Amino acid sequence: MRRSRDVSELVAAAREGDPRAVARLITLVESGDDLVPQIAATLAPHTGKAQVIGVTGSPGVGKSTTTTELVRLLRAQGHRVGVLAVDPSSPFTGGSILGDRVRMQQHATDPGVYIRSMSSRGHLGGLAAATPQAVRVLEGAGCDVVLVETVGVGQAEVEVASLADTTVVLLAPGMGDAIQAVKAGILEIADVFVVNKADRDGADATYHDIQGMIGLGERGPGDWRPQVVRAIASRGEGIDDVVAAIDKHRAWLVEHGELRRRREARAAAEIEAIALGHLRERMGSLRAGTALPGLAAEVAAGTTDPFKAADTLLRDLS
Q1: How far apart are CA 10 and CA 6, in angstroms?
Q2: Contact of 79 with 145, CB cutoff 8 Å
Q3: Fewest beta carbons less than 10 Å away: which of 15, 72, 109, 165?
Q4: What is the spatial distance between Cα 248 and Cα 260, in angstroms, rounded to a whole number?
Q5: 198 near 91, Cβ under 8 Å?
Q6: 158, exposed or middle or buried, with CB in 10 Å at 0-12, 13-18, 19+?
Q7: What angle do CA 4, 128, 61 make, to 5 degrees?
Q8: Sign of the CA dihedral 158, 164, 165, 169?
Q9: How far apart are CA 29 and CA 49, in angstroms?
Q10: Cα–Cα dist 4/215, whole Å
Q11: How many angstroms from the chain centroid is the CA of residue 172?
C-alpha cells in the first residue's frame, strides 16, 4: 500500500479500515500527485456524511490536549474518528514537526481512530493547502467525525471556519486571549468558545469577558449564539460540556438548513481554489513565454495600463 498507485484498490482498502491505504491516499493528495482528481472522483460517493469539527486557538492554549479528550469521548460514544493535526513546517525540510501526534499517542493503537499530522508548508490561515482533500479521504474511509486542529498561529487563523461544520475556539486565562477574541476574525468564526485551563486565576474573568463580547454582537431571531464552556482538558474535566455544545450547534445547523448552506459554501470554495490553481499554472506558462513580458514592458513604458494588459492576458487564457 505504501507505493500503490491503484486508486480503486486504495479507496476500497481505506473503506475497510486499512490505515496504510488511508495514509497513502493522504500522502498523494498532500503531494499534489496527478492522481488527485481520480482520488476525488472515486471518493465522491462516500463523502458528505461526516461531522467536521475545527479546533483552533493560540499556541499553548491546549488544542492538542483538548482534541485528545474529544477523541476519547467520541470513541466512547461509538464514533469512528479521524484527526488532521496541522503542524508548523520545518524550516529545513518543509515537513511537519509532529508535536500533535506525539501528544495523542494514547489513541495510536485504536483501530477506530486515524491521526495524521500535516505540514502547513507556509500556507496561511492555520491549515495546509491539502487539508480539504485530506478531510475527503477520512470521510471516504468511514470516519463519522473528523477533527481538524489548526497550527495555532493566532488571530489570523480563520480559514478553518470555511472547512468545518462547527468551529471550536480555545482560550486560556492569562494569555491575553480575552482581548484577542474581541477582534473580529476570531469572534466571528467561533461557534463554541472553550475557556481551557479553567482552574487558573483569571478564568472567570475570561469567561465573562467572552460572554460580554457575544452579548454585544448583532443576531437576528433564531440566529446561533456561540456557547461558552469552561474546561480543564489536562484532567478531562468539562469535555462532556464541550461535546454537548457541539451537538447543540449541530442540531441548530440541521434545523435551520445551515448545515447544507455551509457545506455548499465549502464545496464552492474548494472548486474555486482548484480553478485558481489551474489558472496559476497557465499563468506560469505565459510567464515563460513572450506575452506577459511584452505586456509588462508596455506597462512599464507607459504605452498601456495594467488593466488593459490584464484584459489582454485573460483573452489569451481563454
Answers
A1: 6
A2: yes
A3: 109
A4: 16
A5: no
A6: buried
A7: 125
A8: negative
A9: 20
A10: 54
A11: 21
Q: Write the pLDDT tens digit of every residue in 141-166.
A: 999 999 999 876 554 456 777 889 99
At 220, phi and psi to the nearest 5?
-85, 175
Q: What is the pLDDT of residues 284-306, one digit of tens each?
A: 766 666 778 888 999 999 999 99
Cell numbers standing for residue 45? 460517493
Q: How far apart (Å, rounded) are the C-alpha atoms in residues 309 and 237?
A: 60
The three-state (H, E, C) secondary structure of the chain, written as one string:
CCCCCCHHHHHHHHHCCCHHHHHHHHHHHHCCCCCHHHHHHHHHHHCCCCEEEEEEECCCCCHHHHHHHHHHHHHHCCCCEEEEEEECECCCCCCECCHHHHHCHHHCCCCCEEEEEEECCCCCCCCCCCHHHHHHHHHHCCCCEEEEECCCCCCCCCHHHHCCCEEEEEECCCCCHHHHHHCHHHHHHCCEEEECCCCCCCHHHHHHHHHHHHHHCCCCCCCCCCEEEECEHHHCECHHHHHHHHHHHHHHHHHCCHHHHHHHHHHHHHHHHHHHHHHHHHHHHHHHCCHHHHHHHHHHHCCCCHHHHHHHHHHHHC
What is this structure's pTM? 0.85
Assigned C-alpha cell, 233 = 482538558
